[in-house]
Amino acid sequence: MRFTTAFKCFVSLFVTGSLIFLGSCADDPTEPPVVTKDEGVYINEIHAAGPDWVELYNSTDESKSIGNYLIYDDATNKYKLPATTIPAKGFLIIFCDDTGVGLNTNFKLTSTGETVYLENASGELIDKVTFPEIGEGQSYGRYPDGSTTLKVSGSTTQGASNGETQAPVILQVTRVPLVPELDDAVTIQAEFASTADVATVKLYYRLNSGTYTSANMTKAGNFYNGTIPAYNQVGKVEYYVEAKNTAGVVSVHPGNAPENTDDFLLNTDPLPALKINEFLAFNSSCCPDDDSGTNEFDDWIEIYNSSDQPVNIGGMYLSDDKNNPFNSRLPLDNPAATTIPAKGFIIIWADGSREQGPLHLDFSLSNAGEDVALFYIDGRMIDSYTFGAQTENQSMGRSVDGAGSWINFATPTPGASND
Question: Which domains, and CATH codes, for the chain?
Answer without folding.
Answer: 41-153 (2.60.40.1260), 170-266 (2.60.40.10), 274-409 (2.60.40)
